[in-house]
Design brief:
Elements lengths: L1 H9 L2 H22 L8 H4 L1 E9 L8 H16 L7 E5 L3 E7 L4 H9 L4 E12 L26 E3 L46 H7 L2 E2 L3 H9 L21 E7 L4 E7 L4 E2 L3 E9 L5 E8 L1 H14 L9 E5 L2 E4 L2 E2 L7 E8 L1 H13 L5 E10 L1 H30 L1 H27 L6 H30 L4 H33 L3 H31 L3 H4 L9 H4 L7 H4 L1 H9 L1
Parallel strand pairs: 5-14
Antiparallel strand pairs: 1-3, 1-16, 2-3, 4-6, 4-8, 4-9, 4-12, 5-15, 7-8, 10-11, 11-15, 12-13
Helix pairs in contact: 2-11, 2-14, 4-5, 4-9, 10-11, 10-12, 11-12, 11-14, 12-13, 12-14, 13-14
Amino acid sequence: MATPKSRSRDGYPGRALALILVVTVGLVALMFGTGYTKPRLGIDLAGGTSVTLTAKSDDPSAINKANLDTAVGIIQKRVNGMGVSEAEVQTQGNSNIIVNIPDGGNTQESIDKVGDTAKLYFRPVLATAPTGISAQPQPSSAPSTAPSGSASPAASGSASAPASPSSSATKAGRALSGALQADPSGSASAPATGSAAPSAPTTPTNPADVSAALTQGTVPAELQQQFTALDCSVKEQRQNYQKASDPSAPTVACSYDAEQSIWYKFALGGVAVNGQDVTKAQAVYDTQSAKGWMVDLSFNDAGSNAFASTTGKLATQPAPANQFAIVLDGQVVSHPYVSESITGGSAVISGTFTQADAKSLGNVLSYGALPLDFVKSDVTTVSPQLGSEQLDAGLVAGLIGMVLVVVYSLVYYRGLGLISIAGLAVSAILTWSIMSLLGAGVGFALNLPAVCGAIVAIGITADSFIVYFERIRDEVREGAQLRPAVQRAWPRARRTILVSDFVSFLCAAVLYLVSVGKVQGFAFTLGLTTLLDVVVIFLFTKPLITLLARTKFFSSGHPWSGLDPKRLGARPPIRGSRRRPAPSQQTQEV
């Protein structure tokens, strides 16, 4: 009858070991089955750029959690739309947004787009002119195919309703000398447009004079001085001149023609359509008329009415007044012309777009309208080499800590040390597989503080082993046999381990809730490994010791078992037969 009673007190250690074995094998199989065999690394380990955006507003009450959360969603979509699917965007404090962009893909383009955080507007074009050139460019070999017969700066496409057959797109990089030709529609323009071609003796060479000679359209009187002085080829002058307090006021803006490598300046009318009225914009390929890539956009009800009214007015104007500018952060990203009123709440912007150009414009239209203005207050870049060095340093530190724990366990606990090593191995496998799967499932990134949390976890796990081992040794010193010692030591060791792990987990939870950014990685890893320590000690360490206590090597107190009564200082009972009831009395007291 002794054996069944003893087994009842031992519990079912084999079942516990089988359970944790099944869980461990299942996680490892899932890890290899999904292909996510490594934890996802943060930018401080893999390399990348961290951008801190600070919200600015004339109305302090506008900087609130709701607007920041809205901006986070838009920026996340904008950056990911550039192909950086692992970018992280999160709020920090009451006015900052942190954008972490890993290396790879269109990293630099994504960093640039993150800075384009002003509101998006559609404004009618009043006048335009090239800047920073000292001589008129040579005529293009390809004539213009615009319906109006007048040339327009590069990057201008055409806007039309999707159902109507639009005219052929303007040629990107059209010759500037075409702007000197007479407008067939008889539109009023700057003096340079009044003659078919300027004579050689009067050809200007000064950049300001060339810009004035090539000006198309009519500059409003209130913008005349500002437009004349603006030179977009000078970086310091490429600013956001829009008045946030009065969107209806005319303004000036700059735009870069990559094909001609020329900066253009624009005189623009008041805001006709707000970018927040765009509900969808995407790059599509015209398979019907083979016109190449274009941007298909849709508006809400308010935007649809405003866009129809605006395009109806622009369609009756001569070039360049028949164009509307898409303005983001004070820069003109596109300025298509209009040949008819566009109704129905949708439109197509066509031109000589590449796939990348169309996709970029679509992202600007879809994700450009933010509820707040932002400035880049900090940009930190970590090279992949530096990230690799930090990762190597973290792994070396973890390896050193692991080796020291193993050596200490083997020297001090001998055979019991092998149990602690096995427990550390199981904990490491569980931690690695869970982190790898969390990286794919919820985007958890292993950063340098998280590595520190994993290193600290080695000590937490080893501490649980030591508490249990020392409790068992105390029982052996008092003269108890190993199997009773294992059972009597467990309740007191269990209580100490649970209290210790609860305190660690509570600290990790509080730190995670009150911190932001990378510190959360440390708190998350510390909390995860603390929970795994409880799982390992209950389902692996205790059941394994229970089974090993039945073996002769440990139960007989072998010198290399770590439980030798002589080495532990246990004194044999005097007159053994008369002192044997002492353990039973002690058991009752416990």
